[in-house]
C-alpha cells in the first residue's frame, strides 16, 4: 500500500510539471479581522469529503451525537477533490508566524474557465445541505392563541425538539420501496430549479395508507430525520375555518413536513370546519405558495370511499401502502427486536403466516418487546395467534392482544382445571357480550388476571401462577391497552 501511495504521488508530481496551474487563496479573516464566511463554508465542505480520510494527517473530534466522530483536516494538509472530471487540490495552510489559516485552491488553468464558478456554487449548496442536516428538527403542533383575547378562536404553533429515533434503517418495509422513497426525496431536494422551470410549487405529496399499527407515523418520523425538516402536525379538527388554515400555513417555514394524520376520518365524518374545496386547495399547495420546499404527508387507514379527486396525481404524488406483517417483515422485526437471524421455530412461524397476515408490525413488535428475555416464547405467541382461525381474529388491537392472552390461558387450561372453573364463575360469558365473536375457549378466563396480578395465588397453586407469570409480558400489554384496571399497589 505504501509503495502504491508513493508511486501515485510521484506520478502526480510528474503530471503537474506538464500543466499550468492557477491558485486561489481563501483566508480565514478579512482585512478587518472579521471571519470570512467563504472560509467557513469551504472548511465544512472539505471536511465532509470522504477523501479527508486519505489525507496524511487528520484530527478526530467527537460529534454532536454521542457516537459521532468528525474528521477535520490538519494544518498544511493537501486533499484532492474531483468535480465534473476535473481535479482540484486544496491545501489547508497555516502561517507559522501569525497562526492565520487559509485554504489554497489549485486548479489547472484550462479547467478554471469551465468549472470554477460552478464548483464554488456547488460548495455553497453542499454547505447549505450539511447545515440543514445538522440543524435540530422541531415538531410543531397547533394550540389556541391565548394572547388573542377577542381573537375568535385563532390558533398558533408551538414547538418542541423532535427526538423520535426512527430512521429508514429501523422502519420495517420492503427494501426496494424504501430505496425508492429515499431516491425520490433526494431528487426532490435537488429539484428547485426544475420545479421553477416548469412553473410548479416546489412540494411533494405522499399518502401513507394501511391498517393501524403498520408504521405510518413511524415512517413520517424517519422521513423527518432523513430530511432534517421540521414537522408541522395539522389537526384539522382544531382549525376553525379556511382563513385560520391559511394563517397557520403562513406561519410555517420552508423545508418542512406538513403532516395530516387520518385524513380519511376527517373526510368521512366531516369532523373539520374546513370545506372540501379548501382541503383540495391546501393539498395542491395553493395556500403554501408563500413558502417553498415542502413535503406534505397524509395518512389514511383505507383509501376506500375516498373521493378520487383527493387522490389524483399532483394532490398525491406518491402512494405508499403499509400492509400487515408478513413473514419477511416478521424476520426483520425478530432481528431488530430479539437479535434473531434464524431460529428453529422460524419454519413454523412461516407456515403460520400462510393463513394470511392478521397481526400488524406494532402488535408483533409489542409481543417481542414484552418477551425479549425469551425469544422462543415470543415466537410461540405469534404462531398460536396465527393458528387461531384467522376469521375469528378481531380487528381491534386491544381485542387481538386479549385473544392472544386467552389463547395462552386456553393452552394452560387442561393443566389447571381449578383455574378454569374459578374464572368461569367470576366472569360469566354473557357479561362480555362477545360470546358470538370468539369461541367459548377464548373468552373464558378474562377475570383470572386481577386475581393473579393482585397476588391472590392461593386459589390456583404455585405452578399455575408461575405459568401465568411467564406470560407477564402479555398481561402487561393488555393492561396497558386497557389503561390499567388496577392500581400499582395491588400489583
Ligand atoms: N413497519 C414498521 N417498522 C418498524 N416498527 C413498526 C412498524 N410498524 C409499526 N411499528 C411499531 O409499532 C408502533 C406503532 O406504529 P405506528 O404508530 O407508526 O403505526 P401507524 O400505522 O401510524 O398506526 P395508526 O394508523 O394507528 O396511527 C411503533 O412504535 C413502531 O415502533
Ligand atoms: Mg399513526
Automatic annotation (TrEMBL):
<feature type="compositionally biased region" description="Basic and acidic residues">
    <location>
        <begin position="427"/>
        <end position="437"/>
    </location>
</feature>
<keyword id="KW-0378">Hydrolase</keyword>
<dbReference type="Pfam" id="PF14363">
    <property type="entry name" value="AAA_assoc"/>
</dbReference>
<dbReference type="InterPro" id="IPR027417">
    <property type="entry name" value="P-loop_NTPase"/>
</dbReference>
<dbReference type="GO" id="GO:0005524">
    <property type="term" value="F:ATP binding"/>
</dbReference>
<dbReference type="Pfam" id="PF25568">
    <property type="entry name" value="AAA_lid_At3g28540"/>
</dbReference>
<keyword id="KW-0460">Magnesium</keyword>
<protein>
    <recommendedName>
        <fullName>AAA+ ATPase domain-containing protein</fullName>
    </recommendedName>
</protein>
<comment type="similarity">
    <text>Belongs to the AAA ATPase family. BCS1 subfamily.</text>
</comment>
<feature type="compositionally biased region" description="Basic residues">
    <location>
        <begin position="416"/>
        <end position="425"/>
    </location>
</feature>
<dbReference type="InterPro" id="IPR003959">
    <property type="entry name" value="ATPase_AAA_core"/>
</dbReference>
<feature type="region of interest" description="Disordered">
    <location>
        <begin position="414"/>
        <end position="460"/>
    </location>
</feature>
<dbReference type="GO" id="GO:0006950">
    <property type="term" value="P:response to stress"/>
</dbReference>
<dbReference type="InterPro" id="IPR025753">
    <property type="entry name" value="AAA_N_dom"/>
</dbReference>
<dbReference type="GO" id="GO:0016887">
    <property type="term" value="F:ATP hydrolysis activity"/>
</dbReference>
<dbReference type="InterPro" id="IPR050747">
    <property type="entry name" value="Mitochondrial_chaperone_BCS1"/>
</dbReference>
<dbReference type="InterPro" id="IPR003593">
    <property type="entry name" value="AAA+_ATPase"/>
</dbReference>
<dbReference type="Pfam" id="PF00004">
    <property type="entry name" value="AAA"/>
</dbReference>
<feature type="domain" description="AAA+ ATPase">
    <location>
        <begin position="202"/>
        <end position="326"/>
    </location>
</feature>
<keyword id="KW-0732">Signal</keyword>
<dbReference type="InterPro" id="IPR058017">
    <property type="entry name" value="At3g28540-like_C"/>
</dbReference>
Amino acid at each position: 500500500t505504501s509503495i502504491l501511495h508513493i508511486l501515485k504521488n510521484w506520478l502526480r508530481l510528474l503530471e503537474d510539471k506538464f500543466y499550468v496551474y492557477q491558485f486561489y487563496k481563501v483566508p480565514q479573516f478579512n482585512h478587518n479581522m472579521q471571519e470570512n464566511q467563504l472560509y467557513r463554508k469551504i472548511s465544512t465542505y472539505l471536511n465532509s469529503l470522504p477523501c479527508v480520510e486519505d489525507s496524511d494527517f487528520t484530527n478526530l473530534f467527537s460529534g454532536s451525537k454521542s457516537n459521532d466522530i468528525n474528521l477535520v483536516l490538519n494544518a498544511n494538509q493537501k486533499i484532492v477533490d474531483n468535480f465534473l472530471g476535473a481535479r482540484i487540490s486544496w491545501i489547508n495552510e497555516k502561517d507559522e508566524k501569525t497562526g492565520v489559516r487559509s485554504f489554497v485552491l489549485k486548479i489547472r488553468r484550462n479547467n478554471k474557465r469551465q468549472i470554477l464558478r460552478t464548483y464554488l456554487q456547488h460548495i455553497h449548496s453542499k454547505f447549505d445541505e450539511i447545515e440543514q442536516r445538522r440543524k435540530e428538527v422541531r415538531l410543531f403542533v397547533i394550540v389556541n392563541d391565548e394572547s388573542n383575547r377577542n381573537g375568535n378562536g385563532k390558533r398558533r404553533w408551538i414547538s418542541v425538539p423532535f427526538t423520535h429515533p426512527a430512521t429508514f434503517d429501523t422502519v420495517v418495509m420492503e427494501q426496494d420501496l424504501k430505496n425508492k422513497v429515499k431516491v425520490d426525496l433526494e431528487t426532490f431536494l435537488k429539484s428547485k430549479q426544475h420545479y421553477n422551470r416548469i412553473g410548479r410549487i416546489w412540494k411533494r405529496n405522499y399518502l401513507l395508507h394501511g391498517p393501524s399499527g403498520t408504521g405510518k407515523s413511524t415512517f413520517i418520523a424517519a422521513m423527518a430525520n432523513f430530511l432534517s425538516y421540521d414537522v408541522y402536525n395539522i389537526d384539522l379538527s382544531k382549525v376553525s375555518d379556511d382563513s385560520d388554515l391559511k394563517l397557520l400555513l403562513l406561519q410555517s417555514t420552508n423545508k418542512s413536513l406538513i403532516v395530516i394524520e387520518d385524513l380519511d376520518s376527517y373526510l368521512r365524518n366531516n369532523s373539520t370546519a374546513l370545506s372540501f374545496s379548501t382541503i383540495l386547495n391546501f393539498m395542491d399547495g395553493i395556500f403554501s405558495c408563500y413558502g417553498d420546499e415542502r413535503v406534505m404527508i397524509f395518512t389514511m387507514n383505507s383509501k376506500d370511499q375516498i373521493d378520487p379527486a383527493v387522490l389524483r396525481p399532483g394532490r398525491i404524488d406518491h402512494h405508499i401502502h403499509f400492509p400487515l406483517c408478513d413473514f419477511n417483515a416478521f424476520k426483520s422485526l425478530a432481528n431488530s427486536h430479539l437479535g434473531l437471524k434464524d431460529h428453529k421455530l422460524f419454519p413454523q412461524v412461516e407456515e403460520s403466516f400462510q393463513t394470511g397476515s392478521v397481526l400488524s408490525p406494532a402488535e408483533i413488535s409489542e409481543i417481542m418487546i414484552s418477551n425479549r428475555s425469551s425469544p422462543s416464547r415470543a415466537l410461540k405467541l405469534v404462531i398460536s395467534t396465527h393458528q387461531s382461525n384467522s376469521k375469528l381474529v378481531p380487528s381491534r388491537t386491544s381485542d387481538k392482544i386479549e385473544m392472544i392472552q386467552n389463547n395462552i390461558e386456553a393452552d394452560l387450561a387442561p393443566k389447571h382445571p381449578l383455574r378454569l372453573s374459578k374464572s368461569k364463575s367470576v366472569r360469566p360469558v354473557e357479561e362480555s357480550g362477545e360470546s358470538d365473536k370468539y369461541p367459548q375457549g377464548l373468552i373464558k378466563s378474562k377475570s383470572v388476571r386481577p386475581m393473579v396480578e393482585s397476588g391472590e395465588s392461593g386459589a390456583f397453586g404455585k405452578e399455575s401462577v408461575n405459568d401465568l407469570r411467564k406470560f407477564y409480558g402479555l398481561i402487561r400489554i393488555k393492561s396497558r391497552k386497557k389503561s390499567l384496571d388496577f392500581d400499582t399497589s395491588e400489583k
